Structure prediction request, 210 residues.
Amino acid sequence: MSAEHLQALSLSTMDDAEELARAETYGVLARLWWAPPDEALLRQFAVAVTEAPQPGGFLEAPWQALVGAMRASSVAAAREEHVALFEGIGKPEVFLYGSYYLAGFLNERPLVALRDDLARLGLERDPSRGETEDHVACVFEVMRFLIAGDDVALCNLEQQRRFFRAHVQPWVEKLCEAVQAQPRARLYAALAGFTAAFMQVETQAFDLIE
Prediction:
């Protein structure tokens, strides 16, 4: 993935390549938030392009920071940071679930509403994955599906807008702020910075079509 795929564009004028780039970005974010990077993913970032076609683009600096943090990390260091931030015994330093940011507790009404909307889309939780559907990686995977899926009755701009407004926009930037406030966050601070910037781009793009 290159930075040119990550430029702010009006959703209403995107071509297939640009839509694929959006889906790819959501997919990469889902993978990075789901679990610490493995050696193969670190190797991909070691050769990732960092220059944007238009220098100074809104996403260029946070993308470069993320690539730099990935290149400076290791599998062991990333795993240690992930455990410290998200897997602490008892209450973790940072929660990765929408219900916590929207309701103050886990498994609350926002999760019920999300499950209702997923059922309407014909989607359900993979029982082999231990996390609930309001995990940040899960909602990013849904956005990727709504952008890149083949069923035009489900995978269209209006469904993207509805899902983003209801289940992504209201809380993901709060998660990013919580991560960036953690002194031990390095790799994940960079990931949070890029995620927040991408959320702002998506929010502004959806604003343009309303």
